[in-house]
Structure formats: C-alpha cells, structure tokens
Amino acid sequence: MSASVKRKRLASGLTVTQKVFVRSRNGNATKIVREHYIRDDIPCFSKACDKCIECYKPGPSGEVPHPILSESPLALTKGKIGKHYVVVDTNIVLNAIDILENDKVFYDVIVPQTVLNEVRNQSYPIYMRLRTLTKNEEKRFVVFHNEFKVETYVPRKQGEIINDYNDRLIRQTAKYYNNHLSDAGISVLLITGDKANKELAVKDGVMSYTIHEYIKLLPDSEELNDLLPSTENFEKQINEIKYPEYYSSARLMGGIKNGSLYQGNISISSYNFLEGSVMTSAIPKPLLILGRENLNRAFNGDNVVIELLPKSKWKKPSTQIIDEETIDKDGLGDDDDNEVIISDKERKLLTQEAIKAQTTENEDEKISPTGRVVGIVKRSWRLYVGQLSPNAVNKNEVVSNSAKNCFVILMDRSLPKIRIRTRRAKELMGKRIVVAIDSWNSNSKFPSGHFVRTLGEIEDKDAEQEALLLEHDVEYRPFSKNVLACLPKEGHDWNVADYISNGDPLLEKRKDLRDRLICSIDPPGCVDIDDALHARKLPNGNYEVGVHIADVTHFVKAGTPLDQEGASRGTSVYLVDKRIDMLPMLLGTDLCSLKPYVDRFAFSVLWEMDEDANILNVSFTKSIIKSREAFAYEQAQIRIDDKSQQDELTLGMRILLKLSKKLKQKRLDAGALNLASPEVKVHTDSETSDPNEVEIKKLLDTNSLVEEFMLCANISVARKIYDAFPQVAMLRRHGEPPATNFELLNDMLRIKKGLSISTESSKSLADSLDRCVDPKDPYFNTLIRIMATRCMMAAEYFASGNFSYADFRHYGLAVDIYTHFTSPIRRYCDVVAHRQLAAAIDYEPLHEIHMDKTKMDLVVKNINKRHRNAQFAGRASIEYYVGQVMKNNQSDQEGYIIKVFSNGVVVLVPQYGVESLIKLEVLGDVNSAEFDEDNYTLKFSDKSGKRRSVSVFDRVDVSIHSILDDYTGKRRVQLLLK
Which end of the chain has fewer CB atoms surrounding its CB within 10 Å, N or C? Predict the structure, then answer.
C-alpha cells in the first residue's frame, strides 16, 4: 500500500488532507481517495492551560468539552522531572493495563487517538478497559485526537511502515504538549515499551522512560514492582525446554490459503491438560493435538494454526486423566516427534487421508488424525485467578525485600502454572490472587506473567464469588456515572401517565392495550419481568393471543453510554445468590419491568389463532399495557387447575395453556428436540445467603406455556426483521451437528445397551432419543438426553448477511429462522431486535450502528462470547454452592457413570446436578487396575481388597461430601463409590 498526501486550507480555517491509497486484492489494484480534516481548535484538556479557552465549544450533541488534566499533577524530585503529565504508547497499554488501572499510580494521563485505535485493533477487551479509564473522573485519563490537530498531525513518509508512523505520531503528541505547557511549568513524559521509540523521543527533546524506569522514580516503587509486566522482570535466563518456534506470518498465511495448514480454536481437555482438539472447516471432526510440544504453548481458546502430522503419528485420544499435579517426572504425555519435516504435497495427501479416516470405517476407527500447533493467530489470554504454589515460600524463610520467582496455580486445572516475580510471596500465601500473562517464550516450560491484585483469603465467600466472575470474564463493576446519567431524570418517580402528558409524537403510533387481561408468569421472586401474555376468544371463534415484551429501547437509545455498556456486557448473569445486571437496576426492576397494576410501555406481538393453534395473521405494535397479575409458575398452575376459578383472566390462561400444548406438538412433529441438562435449585438463607438445601427443579405445564409463546414470538419477529433488513437482521442459528459428534455416544450405547442414535435429521434424532429407554431405570432416557446435548453444536447469534437462508435454520427447534426478542432487559440481542422491528413497522428509523454490517459483526461476536460465559458462570455458581452445602454434611445418593478412563471414572449425580471425577487412587489399588477400552470398563480392587468392575451407564451408589483441593485451593464435590 502506498499513500500520497495533498493539503489545502479551507475558508473555515480547517485543513483538508487528501490521502490516496493503492490497495491490492486478488491481483487487482484499487485506488482509494479519502479526505482527512485537520483542525486547530482541539483543546489540550489541561486546567493549567490558558491558551485553549476558545476551543471548548459545544459539540454536535450539544456537550461542551472541559479541562480534565490537573493543574497540579504529580511532582517528582528524582530525575528533576517536577510536575508532569504522562503520554503512553500502545505497548504500555497492551502490556501494562493492570498498573494503569491501579489507584496508587498513573493519574493525568494523555492517550493519543493513535494509541486508542491501535489498542482497539489488537485487543478489544483491553480497549474496553482503557475506555473505562477515560471515564474515571478521579484517574484523569484523556483521549487526545492527535491525528486531527494541526500541530500533532504529520503525514506518512514514502515507504514508512505503519508501526514506525504511529510511533512518530505519538512522539509528536508528546512534543506538542511539552511546548504547549512550558509556560505552565508542566513537563510531559513519554512512557514507552519500545526501546527505539524511547531513543528517538529523547533525540527530539522529549523525556521518555520505560515503565520499569518510571516506576523506580515513584515513592511506592517497591510495592508497585509486582504489577509490572514480566518482560523485564526475569533476569535469570530460563532454559527448561525447547518448544518449536512458530512459523512466520507469511508461511502461516500461505499455508492456510493453499490448504496445507488449518486454522481454528483449540479446546484443551478438562481431564487431560496435554490433550487438545481443533475443529476446522476442511476436516469433518476435530484434529487431535497430543503432548506438551505439539500443543506448543497454546492456551485453551486460542485461535491457532495446525499442521497435520504423518499418518504414522496418528493416535487415539488419551484414555488417561492427566493434570499438572500428578504428571510424572519423566513428562508423561510429552511428545518428542515435533521435528518431522513434511512437504506440501505430502500435506495434501494427509488431508485426504484425514477426511477418509473420519468419514469411512477404518481398521481402528478410534484412531484420529493428529497435528501440532505451528502458530498462534490470536491469544485468549485474560485475567486468571489462582494461588501461589505451596513451595513458593519456605516456612522458615525470613521476609525479604528481594523479588523471587514463584508459580501461581490456576483454579482451572486444564491451564498451566504461571511464573511470576514478587517480593510479597509470604504475604500472598493462602490468598486468592489475580494474575495476568505477559509472554510464553519457547525456552520456558510455563508462561510468564505478573501479579495484579489480591481478592482475599481462600474460601472467603466474597473472594470466591469474585474469582468466579473473573474466571468467566463477567463484567461486575458498578455502572459508571456516564451510564447512569442516561437514565430518566425523574428516577423512580417516572411513570407512563406523566410521559403521556408531555405529548411525545411517537405516542400516536403506540397502541393502548390496557383493556386486555394481561399477566406475567415467571420463576418465584422474579423482579425483572420482561414478558407478559394474554388470550381472549374473538367473535369469529378464533383467539387473539398477545405476547408483550418490556419496551427497553424506549429508555436505551442507540449509541449512548448506556447502550454501549449494555452492548459490552451482552447479557445479565444469574448466580445462585445474585444477579449481575446488563442494564442498571432502575430499568430492569422498575421502569421497564412489567410489574402488575401499573401502566407500562411494551412491544407487543399479536396473533389471531384458530382452535388448532394455526397462526392466521400476526401484527406488531409498540403498546401501553397494564398487567393484572404477576404469577410464579406454581401459582399460575394452581389457578389454572382450580375449576372454581372462572374469571376472565383465568379463562385466558387456560386458552394459553391449551394452545401452547398444540404449538409444542407441532414443533415436536416437525423434529424439534427435547433435550435435557441437569438443573437444580440451591436454596439460601434469606438473611445470611448461606446455602442450606439443593433440589431438582420441577417443570410444570406453565413453564412450557410461557416457553411456547416466547418461541412463537421470536420466530414471528425473526421473519419480520429479516424481510426488512436482509443483510443485518439480528438472528440466532443452531447448526446441524456432524454425525461424528455422536460416534462415541453411539458406540457406548451399542456396546452397553444395544441401542443407537440416528443423526440423519433432527426428527430422526428426536425419535431415536425417544427409543433410548431402559425399562428398569426411568432416569436413563434423561441421562442420554443430557449426554446427547453435549454432542450438539452451540447455538449462535449472527447478522443475516453472513449466511445463506438455508444456514439460518435452528436445528434444535426445527425452524427455518429464529431470533431472540423476548428478554431485552437481560439480553442485548433482544435490544437490537427491538430496534430493527420498530424500524420494520415504521415506528422510528433504525440507527446507523445497526445498519452497518461490520459493526453488527462485532456486536454478535461479543454477545456470543458473553452469553457463553454467563452460562458457565451460572453453572460454576451452582457447583460452588453445592460444595458449600456439602461442606459440613455427607449425603448418600444415586449416580451414573458417564465416562471411563484407565485411571478413573466420571460420575453424574442427578439429585445435585453435579458431576465429579473419581481418580483410581481414590477408588482403590492403582496397581490392580485393568482397563477394557473397547467395552468402556474399568476393573480394580477397592480399599477393602474386593474386586470391582464399573462401566459407562452403570447406576452406582455414591457418598458425597466436599473437600478443599490442596492443589488449586478450590472447594469441590468429592464422590466415593459405596
């Protein structure tokens, strides 16, 4: 790409820069011309400056910028620096965001727009953390639009690489501030992570330091050293291993393009941290990655590039449970065959062999094509929670101020230890701590990182709850002032009547449905009520049925800080004892919640249905409703079943129940799946929130009633918004699972029960699941449905322009098109669907951010991630509380063996909805074990010497209690076979 620049002065005082780019794609050169406007009225945002007064003019939205940087910033005597501001470069933000967030250091910081853009391109999570810092009034971080300021914009030189150009823009910003604020007695320091950038800055007369050098100048430098990125912390040369070097970017890109290399996200086994798998589009089922060196420093969730190994190296998945704690000194599971040289021609033949091996019957169909990681496209690194390794501190050791290398053992056993350097090892022992990863060099067996902060003592309830949220990347901090400022000024006094009296023109488009007998049916104690229903018989004998959804978008306007926060959080997260809201509580539990007896704004879907629940017509309208009652599921069921109740509201609920059963039968007839998951409810003490009981959730007809009409509304809305916006409609799809996903389950069923599951279609799968019964065990069918659910693909949100219509299909629901519309209080997808539906019915125009396909792609990518994390966090919360319930108790329950390894089994306990690994050393004599891999059977001598045999699907009696895992410091359920 080349660029030429032309400038001209406009009458308004602006300078327009013309950039001419030549872009080459697929061998075709395209000339692109863009205009870039440069201003002289961008303020410096310093309270100490009296030169920028005229620059503080109202912006397009009417907001007036104001000075943020202190007139009396930190003054340092060391280095004769005095009062100063700090300019940070991109490396500092990416590698040291934790210390930038620390409340003891880094105030009055200037973030050039160039840095903000680079960070956004390289790490969106860190970009969001940086944006949060710029909204923190106490920290005083300002974004300076250096690329639009006359004095700080510099054109790109011919042949200058983009990184060098960006560094020059950042240096120019620091230089400008130094000159601009010289009269105020404030200097500006450039903090950089690039040695060359530092040298060039000093040459330009700008004071510049690395972050390690700068921290040494500060009063609390000793305490802050632990927060520094480890890149300069480890002075001793580590030489523990020699991982293969990653291929160059050019080789990776070329290999992916010509089909000799494969790209995908790696999943590390939860039972064997030295086994991973990667799903690619080229090969039917996941490629197997075995051994430390073949995994080649890949973390769970990384986007990696894989090279196939020769067929002679293909292996079966491991049948052993292997974790860091028990791995033997010889490196059990490590591979030493990574130096295999393969030609491109051989790779293509290997691909054909891999496809053949996974689609036809082989001599040993359990052998899988294996590969090795040769490159990392994108790291999944985040903040991790763990504890210091027990041997990090010698009990007799005297507290020292010198830093030492320590290992942090993470709560997730599938992840490796992280090496950090700290002076506070003795203080941190027994604490739950947060760490970040900085790098993983090819000569280090483990990644290097740095300490971020302490959460509290291990087993402290608050510390463990915060650890759970951090482990699943859930945003739980309070909403910022900018976000809360978007709420109605009337606060809790706001009501529909007052709004109507103000005479908003959109009210004429809103239908008054307050005469309908509407009610809500939700779980007990629900306060964020986002859906309600009604039904009534029409004079022609048909039924009017309505689903009414909280009109969240009336309060959450696109592009506002409130909307941006909702988009970032993506979903509310439900834990056992708390809810982490997507939107502020004022909206979720008050203004938007469809509480009974009060007027509320809603978005309504109205159908006319006949006796057989056929939809004759459908309409959509913004509405005003008044719910007559808020029922819990059980309350609604009792009222429906009570024959003495003959009021119109109850009659309407009976109509809903009758029609819902017919709707469900239609879905099942079409091939919808009736899957299952182990669902339990943990009861907690109302005062202390301590857990005291666990029970299996009971599903009533009213649960299904609500579900069927929510599904129906989502399908109707999906059709409408797709018709209106075929390229950007917010939809949800569920892909058809490859038959290979069910191979293991089918093999177990065939061998142990003489049964099988058909995967030809969702209908055949549903029918075959119905046939998977054991006359002697009524729970067996539920167990198989739970295991089948885990073989399915994950449902995902998407923008409609990214797939053909045939790929819109939701396999599990057996419908051709689907979206989420019915829970906008707790899901951001629904917020977007509301806006698109409002535009589709000409209520109000659609905001440009939802018309832009690129921006929509970013939205769906984030909400898919947030939705998945919320599910995992909810399950982890139940697991934690079940562990607490069993802390001082022991219970004997019935369980089912769902996995068998050569050195242990996994048992599911339906009563508590938990599954747990029982290792062979707990079962009995390790040396007595005999593992029959073909029949999924493990034989061993138990502690009493009795010979025992256990197989997959066996119903077993287990004793349940909880233990504190000495290795991870995590309390978990422990099962013992009786």
Answer: N
